[in-house]
Write a structure and sequence with these properties.
- The protein contains six helices and no strands.
- With 164 residues, the protein is mainly α.
- Helix 3 (67-87) packs antiparallel against helix 4.
- The longest helix is centred in the N-terminal third of the chain and has 28 residues, at 17-44.
- The radius of gyration is 19 Å and the shape is globular.
- It starts with 16 loop residues before the first helix and ends in a 14-residue tail after the last helix.
- Residues 1-5 have low confidence and may be disordered.
Length: 164
């Protein structure tokens, strides 16, 4: 006996183009918000962050070369990358840049702290989730409700990429 009996097959929402566009917009919004907040911590000291000076000191403690330069690069990448994601502008390039940012965060800091964020020093669990979400967004694209679509950087609904 099944727990759910509808008398017909259950249909998934994802079978419509509108659902895919909605999913892309949801991913862009959530990821954009997260990255804007983290970039603002690094650049401006908002939300309890250390600003450029605090981020530079942190990067210095990790032996990252040119720590001030990379503090600015990381802050700008995250803050403006988040904005670009929200608007759906240059989504694939931005998603890849932020994905690399998260891989570098794991390699330079989180890897030695274990997987779970509750680990001392914070593990790489959150970075891993963000990488997965960014990868999914890069694969599905910005969706129909994006500046990429308006500029022709994302194909119209139903388009397929032909193999070369």
């Amino acid at each position: 006996m099944s727990i759910i009996s509808t008398g017909r097959r259950l249909g998934a929402v994802h079978t419509t183009r509108t659902a895919v566009d909605s999913a892309a917009m949801l991913l862009r919004g959530v990821l954009g918000f997260v990255f804007i907040a983290h970039g603002a911590q690094k650049l401006f000291g908002w939300f309890g962050g250390g600003g450029i000076d605090g981020t530079t000191a942190f990067f210095t403690s990790l032996d990252i070369p040119a720590p001030r330069f990379f503090a600015v690069v990381a802050g700008l990448t995250e803050f403006f990358g988040g904005l670009l994601l929200i608007f759906g502008l240059l989504t694939a390039v931005t998603g890849l840049a932020l994905l690399v940012d998260m891989v570098l965060a794991i390699v330079t800091f989180n890897a030695d702290n274990g997987f779970f964020v509750e680990s001392p020093g914070g593990g790489w669990e959150l970075n891993f989730v963000l990488i997965g979400m960014l990868g999914a967004l890069v694969l599905i694209g910005a969706g129909g409700w994006s500046i990429d679509r308006v500029l022709g950087l994302a194909g119209p609904p139903g388009t397929k990429v032909e193999a070369a």
